[in-house]
Backbone:
């Protein structure tokens, strides 16, 4: 999706979100937690209608201002790494999502980030916050 289309789409959904918030139906967003670290399956980005995921070296984050709270990404994650920001398990990562989403590149297509074996190995590891890299994802190498 080009930048202008993304901005138009985000504005459209933000308007809907604002309308909903004004009616006080919901007041939350979604957050990627430490379960994503060193797994980065990226199934979540395929279903996001507003492309609000951003990619770091070993995990993704969600930009809370772009997220429209639809929740379609949550069931897609094989490691249960996406919770609402009000969930206890998200609290340590809410600020990190906000901060790093402003520094990391956008990701809107699923890709194989690590070997399946590595991903599945790290999916079983708990307390991974110590392994969080704040570096952005390395640029894609485009093969001619
Ligand atoms: Fe991470 Fe799960 Fe998405 S592991 S990249 S939040 S599918």
Residues:
């Amino acid at each position: 999706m080009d930048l202008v289309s993304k901005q138009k789409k985000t504005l459209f959904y933000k308007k809907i979100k604002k309308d909903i918030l004004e009616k006080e139906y919901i007041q939350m967003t979604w957050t990627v937690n430490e379960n994503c670290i060193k797994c980065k399956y990226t199934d979540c980005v395929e279903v996001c209608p507003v492309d609000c995921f951003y990619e770091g070296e070993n995990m993704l984050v969600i930009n809370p201002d772009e997220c429209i709270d639809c929740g379609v990404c949550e069931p897609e994650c094989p490691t249960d790494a996406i919770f609402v920001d009000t969930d206890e398990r998200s609290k340590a990562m809410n600020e990190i999502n906000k901060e790093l989403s402003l520094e990391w590149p956008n990701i809107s297509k699923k890709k194989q980030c690590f070997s399946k074996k590595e991903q599945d190995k790290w999916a079983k590891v708990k307390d991974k916050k110590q392994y969080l890299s704040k570096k952005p994802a390395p640029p894609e190498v485009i093969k001619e």
